[in-house]
Design a protein that fits this description.
Strand content: 15-25%
CATH superfamily of the domain at 119-346: Enolase-like C-terminal domain
CATH topology of the domain at 119-346: TIM Barrel
Number of strands: 18
Structural class: alpha/beta
CATH architecture of the domain at 119-346: Alpha-Beta Barrel
Radius of gyration: 21 Å
Length: 387
Amino acid sequence: MKIKDAKVFVCSPGRNFVTLKIYTDEGIYGLGDCTLNGRELAVANYLTDHVIPCIIGRDPFQTEDIWQYLYRGAYWRKGPVTMSAIAAVDMALWDIKGKSLNTPLYNLLGGKSRTGVMVYGHANGRDIEETGDEVEKYIEQGYLAVRAQSGVPGLPTTYGVSDDKMFYEPAAKGLPPENVWSTEKYLMQVPKLFKALRAKFGDEIHLLHDSHHRLTPIEAARLGKELEPYRLFWLEDPVAAELQQGFRIIRQHTTTPLAVGEIFDTVWDANVLITEQLIDYLRMTVVRGGGITPLKKIAAFADMYHVRTGCHGATDLSPVTMGAALHFDISVSNFGIQEYMRHTKETDEVFPHGHGVDFDDKLAAKFPYERAYLPVNRKLDGTMWNW
C-alpha cells in the first residue's frame, strides 16, 4: 500500500476547520485534523506546499518513520503550524491502518485500558446562580465532571461565559475583539462560585475551573489555596503555560490539583513540569502535540511521574481529533479525563458520525472559510494581557 494523493479542506460549518484527507492506491483514505484558531490558512498552505509532496509514494503503515521524517527534516521544527500539520498526517495514517486492518484504533495502541472514558462538560452563566443552573443540567444528563465558569461583576465579558450555554465558541468572525480584564475582580468571584456550587451539589460531582493563563504565580497560589475547601478536580492554566518555573511557587502553596498543556507542541514544553511533578494533569492533545505517535510516548513518560492525561477537547478541534483522542484515552494507562464540547449541527453534518468519523467534502464546500480570531484581553487601564 502506498500514499497516492492528499488534499486539504478548509471549511466553516459553524466555525473554521482544516481537514487533511490522505488517499492510498488501495482505495482507503484517512482523515487528519489540523485546525489552528486564527491561523487556519497558514497550516493549510504549509501542508499543501511543503508536507504533502514529501509523503506521496510512502508506505502509510510506517507512521514512526514518516513522523520523524517530517519533524526532523524540517530543521526549523516545533511551533503550532508545523506540529499541527504533522499531527494531521499522523492522524490520517493511523486512520488508514485501522481501516486497512479492520480494527478500532485503540487495538493498535495497546488495546483498552478501561471500559469507558470520563468526559467533562462546560457550565457557564452570567452570575453564580445561572452557572449553578447550568451545572445542574449537566448532572441531569449524567455527567460526572463539570467545568464551571461564571461572569465577574464589573466586567462586561469573561472567559468561558457565552449566551449559548451548550455551544460555547470563543472565536469571533473578523479581526480579534478586545475584551476587558481585571484580576482583582476575578479573584474575588471564583471562591464564591465554588462555595455556592459545593453547597448546592455536595461532594459527588467533580468540579473543574480554567483561569486561562491570566494569573501570576503568586496570584495562582492564592487562588489555589482559597479553593482547597471545595476540592476541585483541577485548576487549569493558572499562569502562562510557558512559565514553567512559576508552577514551583504555586505547588509550594496549594494542594489544589493543577492542569496545563493545551498549547504545548512537544514533550520539551512539559519536561520540567512532569519531571518535577509540578502538575497533576497534562492537557496536550492529538492535534497540537504532533499526533498520536508522539502523544503515546509523552503519556508513557508522564506516567512515570504520576501525571495523568486530560486532553484538550474544545470546539476548535474537529470531530476527527475527538475521535482520535477517545481511542488514545481508552488505551493509555494514566488517563485522567477528557474535555468535551458539543459541536454545531452543521459541523456534525460535515463530519458524520458512525464507525469512527468521516468527512463530507462536497457538503463542506457549502461552508467556505471565514476569517475568525480568538479575543485578546486588556486590563482595566488598557494594558494588553493574556486572553
